[in-house]
Design a protein that fits this description.
It is built from 22 helices and 22 strands. The protein is α/β, with parallel strands linked by helices and about 700 residues long. It has a 7-stranded mixed β-sheet, with helices on both faces. A 5-stranded parallel β-sheet has the order 4-7-10-1-11. The protein has a two-stranded antiparallel sheet with strand order 2-3. Helix 8 crosses helix 9. It is globular, with a radius of gyration of 29 Å. The termini are far apart. Bound molecules: zinc ion (ZN). Zinc ion binds next to loops. The site of zinc ion (ZN) has 10 residues, from loops.
Length: about 700
């Protein structure tokens, strides 16, 4: 593609540049996960890197990009002759769209033709297209679970394996995997995080000079991409050469035993799971040494590698913020080191790659021949993501991801907040009893309610509605069996026509939208009770995280209801906002319900297949605003549960009235924990309850 933005012209983002380069130098590093807010040029820089990768030689007639020097022996387009001619093409950059189907990713096996004609027809997918190039997944956290599994399996094995019933195809699929995600929109499961070699946190620079330079270059590029690129061609060529040389050198780099012990010591101290972190860190340190031009891994190589390979592996709890405490890293490196970290790399860069021995960040220096005028001193080198990324203590006391961008909007104590407000800390979260949306849904896969899903257990068969994807073999054979004589079958083997084909109907679990409506008014604000209410909602949030739900949070107090967390997959943000939630004031319950009805209406338009579960956390008192009858009627038919927070010797059981209006079961706050039997969860709760009082 003409006009990719030059890699060397990217301002700042030094960690991201380094992580991409280390992967370009050594495929063993295992890919990069880029975490960060929107609008940080993540995709620009990934495209720019792809343009820097050495061209690949491929067999022209092969759809699977076999190397003529070393063709894949199992290639579906093979076998290839040893002397087959090759042609050079740039390394591919393939984008996997979030909404892609399984067929699009791994390729499509035509089961219909296999069964009816007995031929093996295979249409290669994106994994084949990305072989020997870059596979880029923007918003990887929004990708369907099942696709993520397929993708990471292929990335780990270097092979794409497609199997449908008894028909299977495999081909080589080795690619540099780059995923991006905005953590505000939901986390990756921890076991998937671990499958990315490196992670980088990016955020736009807060330095005005650097920001101005980014914009200046962008404007110049947009005005005239060709001449902008021409101005950076020298640096780009030098960078490409340096990557190619490092690739050559990487196999010869020595990893001394002392450095390996240092890696093991640091990984053990950060309590990472398994040995994958050690392996990735070692490979990244080797790549860093090669990139630097060194022959042997130094303590500084280990430090740079660990900084990128450990942050996402030391996470223990979904509410812990990611990131790595760099001063602790330095202490550990010194403790396990033997020699002092921070000794500079040998200045033996053979032909003076851009900027000498430092690293890729040096290539943005002011000497860049920018057409738009002089590039000023940007002062960028020291303000990169690793300094501004969130560093938090892992002492568990804390505010979790509360400094995520925007996390405090609308929740912190506002300047005009009444004096009666306060923030009460939550008690410890616990495992909650499971709540489900009744019936059978069609939502995105998850772990809450029953749903028709592409995976899961087979519950029946049907005539396929479109192209046959998941054949139900025995149903197909049963359909074909009665017609064998009339079709003129004479030998062995069933005669199958396409009218016989049946596909499997499968049932699994879906995730839901769990919308919390939490009473934060003065009547709830007795300290001990609010502690318990917050713990209950935190526990429900943790449960929602495990079940792959989207969550939203509405709170009401004073005279209004606020949507403090618009529906998102990021449970961290929900937890952070709940922890900061102040309480006090009157109780506009009707406003809370009305707000919930509005949110659900919009979400139904946005994501019709995702069924909502309303969780109203209240004592049922409404001391302000209109009557609840009308807004409750708006919510009729929505699956829900009322968590009754009333306590004390005199009970009004108002939450039960609300539950009855909503047609929802109610559960007492103290009966929310799992394993409590059904005692606290009563459908016709009122009678039972009045009897008990
Ligand atoms: Zn081939």
């Amino acid at each position: 593609m003409i006009g990719a933005y030059p890699f060397s012209a990217v301002v700042g983002l030094d960690d991201l540049k380094l992580a991409l380069i280390l992967n370009a130098v050594s495929p063993r590093v295992g890919g990069v996960l880029v975490r960060g807010e929107k609008g940080t040029a993540k995709s620009t820089i990934v495209r720019a890197l792809a343009a820097q990768l050495p061209a690949v030689k491929v067999i022209a007639a092969c759809r699977f990009s076999c190397d003529p020097a070393e063709p894949d022996p199992g290639c579906p387009d093979g076998p290839h002759d040893a002397g087959e001619s090759g042609q050079e093409r740039p390394a591919a950059l393939v984008e996997l769209p979030v909404g892609a189907s399984e067929d699009r990713l791994v390729g499509a096996l035509d089961i219909e033709r296999a069964l009816t004609e007995g031929v093996r027809a295979f249409e290669p997918g994106l994994l084949a297209a990305a072989h020997r190039g870059v596979l880029y997944v923007d918003e990887v956290n929004l990708l369907h679970d099942h696709l993520v599994d397929l993708l990471l399996d292929a990335a780990a094995l270097g092979t794409c394996f497609v199997e449908r019933e008894s028909v299977s195809v495999r081909h080589a699929a080795r690619f540099l995997l780059v995923g991006t995600m905005n953590p505000e929109e939901g986390e990756l499961r921890p076991q998937l995080l671990d499958r990315f070699g490196l992670t980088v946190e990016v955020r736009a620079s807060r330095n005005p000079d650097e920001r101005a330079e980014v914009v200046r270059r962008r404007l110049a590029f947009d005005a005239d991409p060709a001449s902008f690129a021409a101005g950076w061609a020298g640096q780009e060529a030098a960078l490409a050469r340096r990557i190619a040389e490092a690739r050559e050198r990487v196999r010869q780099v020595v990893l001394p035993d002392a450095r390996l012990r240092q890696i093991a010591g640091v990984c053990a101290a950060f309590e990472v799971d398994g040995l994958r972190a050690d392996l990735v860190t070692a490979n990244a340190a080797i790549a860093h040494a090669a990139w630097r031009g060194g022959a042997e891994v130094t303590a500084e190589d280990v430090r740079e590698a660990a900084r990128l390979s450990l942050p996402h592996r030391r996470r223990r709890d979904p509410f812990d913020a990611p990131g790595l405490d760099e001063s602790r890293l330095d202490d550990l490196l010194a403790e396990h080191g033997g020699d002092e970290p921070g000794e500079p790399g040998e200045p033996d860069d053979p032909d003076g790659g851009p900027g000498g021995s430092g690293g890729p960040g040096d290539s943005d220096g002011p000497e860049g021949p920018v057409n738009s005028g002089d590039a000023p001193e940007t002062g960028s080198a020291e303000s990169s993501a690793h300094e501004s990324g969130p560093h938090r203590d892992a002492d568990g006391s804390g505010t979790g991801a509360s400094d995520a961008p925007g996390a405090s909007d609308g929740t912190g104590a506002a300047p005009d907040a009444p004096a009666t407000e306060r923030v009460i800390a939550a008690a410890e979260p616990y495992r909650v009893r499971p709540f489900q949306v009744p019936g059978l849904g069609d939502g995105a896969s998850g772990r809450r309610s029953r749903a028709r899903t592409p995976n899961g257990r087979t519950t029946g068969s049907r005539v396929p509605t479109g192209r046959l994807q998941r054949p139900h073999l025995s149903a197909t054979l049963r359909a074909a069996a009665p017609y064998q004589r009339e079709r003129g079958r004479s030998g062995p083997g069933l005669l199958v026509r396409d009218t016989d084909l049946r596909e499997a109907v499968r049932e699994g679990k879906e995730g839901n939208l769990v919308l919390f409506v939490v009473d934060a008014s003065g009547s709830m604000a007795a300290r001990q009770r609010m502690r318990e209410v917050k713990a209950a909602v935190l526990s429900l949030l943790l449960d929602a995280y495990q079940r792959r739900d989207k969550v939203g949070l509405i709170t009401f107090r004073g005279s209004t209801a606020d949507l403090v967390l618009p529906p998102t997959s990021s449970v961290e943000v929900g937890a952070a906002r709940l922890r900061e939630l102040p309480t006090g004031g009157r109780t506009p319950l009707a406003a809370g319900l009305r707000r919930a009805a509005e949110v659900l209406r919009v979400e139904r338009l946005r994501d019709p297949a995702r069924r909502p579960l309303l969780v109203v956390v209240t004592d049922g008192r409404a001391t302000s605003g209109s009557d609840v009858a009308a807004p409750a009627a708006l919510l009729a038919g929505t699956a829900g549960v009322v968590v009754d927070c009333e306590s004390g010797p005199v009970r009004l059981a108002l939450a039960l009235d609300l539950a009855a209006r909503l047609g929802a079961p109610a559960v007492r706050l103290d009966a929310l924990a799992a394993g409590g039997g059904l005692g606290g969860l009563v459908r016709d709760y009122r009678t039972d309850y009045r009897k008990a009082v």
